[in-house]
From TrEMBL:
Stated family: Belongs to the G-protein coupled receptor T2R family.
GO molecular function: bitter taste receptor activity; G protein-coupled receptor activity
Native species: Engystomops pustulosus
SUPFAM superfamilies reported in the protein's UniProt record: Family A G protein-coupled receptor-like
InterPro entries: TAS2R
Keyword Amino-acid biosynthesis: no
Topology term for the membrane: Multi-pass membrane protein
Record protein name field: Taste receptor type 2
Gene Ontology CC terms: membrane
TM region(s), chain numbering: 6-27, 77-101, 122-141, 170-193, 214-235, 247-268
Length: 290
């Protein structure tokens, strides 16, 4: 597993640097950064930190063995793992809400108020989101560290039933609520776009075809991102409830690694600026090679 994780980290490292570097240059140039770019940068950074965490954990395990981990060390491992996962879902939820408020127009006072206030929450809401992730993950990490201080966290998630972990159940309940909550603006956006496209087709309108195409592209990106989030959170729950045999754990672990591998192109796909820059770099490299 160490070789696989290291390989994925090596492959995706240029992509993470590309996302962060382009957005930093954009911020230095314009002294501001679009909300979607802020969230995409945050998601890219979280994905990169997760890969570094995986490789670092496996290196320590290979060099010193599992016995080298103390109770406080296991607490730190579980805290980092759970908080990174929850913060990723939280940032994805903000991104879904942002696209919904940007695309969908509803003539209701409360909705209009949210449209006006939501952009003012950035970038200040990002740091509290990280702190909330740590706060919610800490009790679950304490729960896990008490029971699994002698084995790896992914392997041991299947060695006991979920009912023994009260704070872990609370953690999964909150993450499930966040995931369901993120589906609401996504469904509203899809329904609104379908109605708008149907209205344009029925009236043979093509004035805003480019705008609609961009919105549809954004919705597809959100759907892919939420599907990967669902995969990331459903699998540990199923493992914790012992619905799979322990021999299936490596397959599940591989799915979790694949999530972070697929996450990178989806994040780049979600930003037209990043796509344009990547296309320019690709053309430049093709020209140099030829």
């Amino acid at each position: 597993m160490l070789a696989i994780n290291s390989c994925f980290l090596f492959i995706t490292f240029p992509g993470h640097i590309f996302i962060l570097a382009m957005n930093i240059l954009e911020w230095k140039k314009n002294k501001r950064l679009d909300i979607s770019d802020q969230l995409i940068s945050g998601l890219g950074l979280l994905s990169f930190l997760y890969k570094v965490f995986q490789v670092g954990f496996k290196c320590v395990e290979v060099i010193h063995g599992v016995q080298a981990f103390t109770g406080s060390a296991w607490l730190s491992v579980y805290l980092i793992y759970n908080s990174l996962n929850f913060c990723t879902l939280l940032f994805s939820t903000w991104l879904t809400i942002h696209f919904c408020l940007k695309i969908v127009n509803i003539n209701q006072n409360f909705y209009i108020y949210i449209q006006r206030m939501f952009p003012k929450m950035f970038p200040w809401i990002l740091l509290p989101s990280v702190l909330v992730s740590l706060l919610i993950s800490l009790p679950a990490a304490q729960d896990l560290s008490k029971h699994y201080s002698n084995s790896t966290f992914l392997l041991n998630l299947g060695s006991s039933q979920l009912k023994r972990f009260h704070y872990l159940k609370l953690y999964y309940s909150i993450t499930s609520f966040c995931f369901v909550f993120s589906l609401i603006p996504l469904l509203i956006t899809i329904v609104s776009l379908c109605r708008h496209i149907h209205r344009m087709q029925s009236h043979s309108l093509r004035l805003r075809a480019d705008s609609v195409s961009a919105h549809v592209y954004a919705v597809k990106t959100l759907i892919l991102l939420l599907c990967l989030n669902c995969l990331q959170f459903v699998i540990p729950v199923l493992v914790t409830q012992r619905r799979y045999n322990s021999t299936f754990i490596p397959v599940i672990f591989l799915f979790l690694v694949m999530w972070h591998l697929c996450n990178l192109p989806i994040l780049i796909r979600g930003s037209s600026k990043l796509q344009k820059k990547l296309h320019e770099i690709w053309i430049c490299c093709s020209f140099l090679v030829s």
